[in-house]
Amino acid sequence: MAIDYKKEGRIAIFTLNRPEALNAMNPESLEELSRALIDFKDDDELWVGIITGAGDRAFCAGADIGTMLPVLKKLIGQPWAEPPTIMRGLKLWKPIIAAVNGHCLGGGLEIALACDLRIASEKATFGVPEVTLGLIPGWGGTQRLPRAIPWAKAAELLLAGRPFDAQEAYRIGLVNKVVPLAELMPTAKQLAEIVCRPGPLAVRAAKQAMIQGTSLSLEDGLELEKVLVDFLVTTEDFDEGCKAFLEKRKAEFKAK
Questions:
Q1: Neighbours of 53 (CB within 10 A)
Q2: Distance (Å, rounded) from C-alpha 40 to C-alpha 100?
Q3: Which of 34, 59, 94, 209 could be bridged to 104 by S-S, CB 3.0 to 4.6 A?
Q4: Architecture field, domain 3-196
């Protein structure tokens, strides 16, 4: 399997599993990732996802040049022909954490950018080198990177295509934390457990408001926020959260 998909309680773990190719994405792995993400989206028992790479050398070195780049020519004029993923085509409001264990380049960085939180090992390296191939990122890199870090820094990385290390990624705000490799998955799982504690419908609504709001005016974003608030106050989870607060106990949320 190019994608190792496991479920641990409320947490889904997606492992990009082509270590012999630095976990580079080929058409088969992209299709498998799409199917796994859709299953995660539709499984009411799963609340948070973690994406990582097999081995200790790479999170994902990007697209497999030998198999993926020829596909690009076949898809000219077909922007939605690829399987739907978090990079493009799949609306997924459940939060996802990227646990970046090694090289995170090109499409690999775009996968990480499509996640909501990013933990990096000290050995991780990042970059969007597509311009060195006469190309630009095609899974959202040109759009998400300038939204994630300062514009001038995003321009430097996208236009020069140079790699950078985990400490620089942390300094520019691309990752939330840098940890030793041995602590990467425990840290990611700990963070996932923390994100599982609040009301899951509220967490998803917050993510939706953030993502959709970035393309709206402030006025329209406030309207979206109000729509989501109006929905949340009708849920069982909201009633349970308020009741638990007044009773000074832990809330038992059910995503309902």
A1: 28
A2: 20
A3: 59
A4: Alpha-Beta Complex (3.90)
